[in-house]
Amino acid sequence: MSFPQTALARYTEDEYLAIERESEERHRYLDGEILLMAGESPQHADASTNLTAEIRNQLKGTPCRLWTKDTKVRSGPLPKKGHSTKGLYSYPDGVIVCGEPQFLDEHQDVVINPKVIIEVLSPSTEAFDCNEKFRRYRMFNPSLTDYLLVAQDKFVIQHFAKRDDGQWLIAASVTDLSDSVHIASINCTLQLAEVYDRVSFPEEEA
Description:
By secondary structure, the protein is of the alpha+beta class. It is built from six helices and 13 strands.
């Protein structure tokens, strides 16, 4: 099922969710606007797969679990009103939930208590992921403690972490394959060499 293509269309949250659950494609929702998500590049796919493998192995035996890019996260004003057009529904590349998952409704396809969110940056979404999306994550997801941005065109991982006083800081910004990022809240360490294993940047392929 596809969304009607009208320039001025604005959908409520309930309208978006009803149609999205029948759609064969993934769409992001932002303040009433529905945006088709583009397919991923080989670099994006490899980095995402590597991240999943590294994190899953380290979370075994812990109360935390990793869900990948087909899980929606809601970031919007509360209490939720079905007729509202204010809010964000996104599909992060990685969502880590610790303890009992909390869902928006009985469909159990929208998570509202993410602890760690990981985004593999794409050229078309990088500015949004780094700015407005992160602002909304911070504002509307109080359970969130860590946000990671992983570049797909160079060796760069940025890690933002929330302090005990609620302030966010840059915990790490690493650019060398010998570097690593430690996510203390889930006791997980990501080695850049593993995250970027088999990832060939476009200029290298050329």
